Amino acid sequence: MKNEKKAHLLRFLERNKRFDGRKLDEFRKIEVQTGISRNAEGSALVKFGETMIMAGVKMSVEKPYPDTPEEGNLMVGAELSPIASPEFESGPPGAEAVELARVIDRGIRESKAIDTKQLCLEKGEKVWNTAIDLVTINASGNLIDAGALAALAAIKDTKLPKYEDKQIDYKKRTDKQLPIKKLPIAVTVYKVGPYMIVDPDAEEEEVAETRLTVTSSEGKISALQKGNEYPLTIEEVEKMITIGLEKAKELQKHIR
Fold first, then answer.
1. pLDDT tens digits, residue range 78-103?
2. Which residues contact 5 (CB under 8 A, 6 or more apart)?
3. In total, how many domains does the chain have?
């Protein structure tokens, strides 16, 4: 059945079309909504077609990591629940959820999107910890790009809670935002046969051989992450990077 679906898709791709009528390098309709959670310090809901994912940011004061005593901490977690897809199971995060969180975490971390040194309260003792939680509401392909955009929108939406006398008052929100230096955009390019596509739906994602996530900021690559075991040639990687950098310009419009 999977081979038949792939063969059918390839016939469409030959004509520069996809099942839903899009071109190979065309995104589905994208919607970004911020400030959706009353209790999170920052939040966002992002839709790529029928794919829907929510991101929430929770700030806390923690001890810094030993190797970065003057920098705030960053953590990204992802939940893939059965309400989003029958393919997901309840319980601890599986391999797919862990990979989703790591790819998004790496894009933010490697781009140095947040000036973590400004999150230091007391060297070696107290820093702001930025925890980003991703919750998938509906999984219909391309969770990486949707999740990365949701995380970024939630970061931009974040306002620090009041911190006084070494105590956090979560009921009192300040006007202080996270010190954002860059806006890293993730674009995942998928390979189906000899063709490269972006923003696959669930059916396209199922038959794709491999993928490459290109995270960039202002045209400069911050991180690359390959998925699946299928090999890529140098020429294919270069083509995927070119597509990723170009399509990032479109996604930036939704975050600015």
1. 999 999 998 888 888 889 999 999 99
2. 203, 206, 207
3. 1
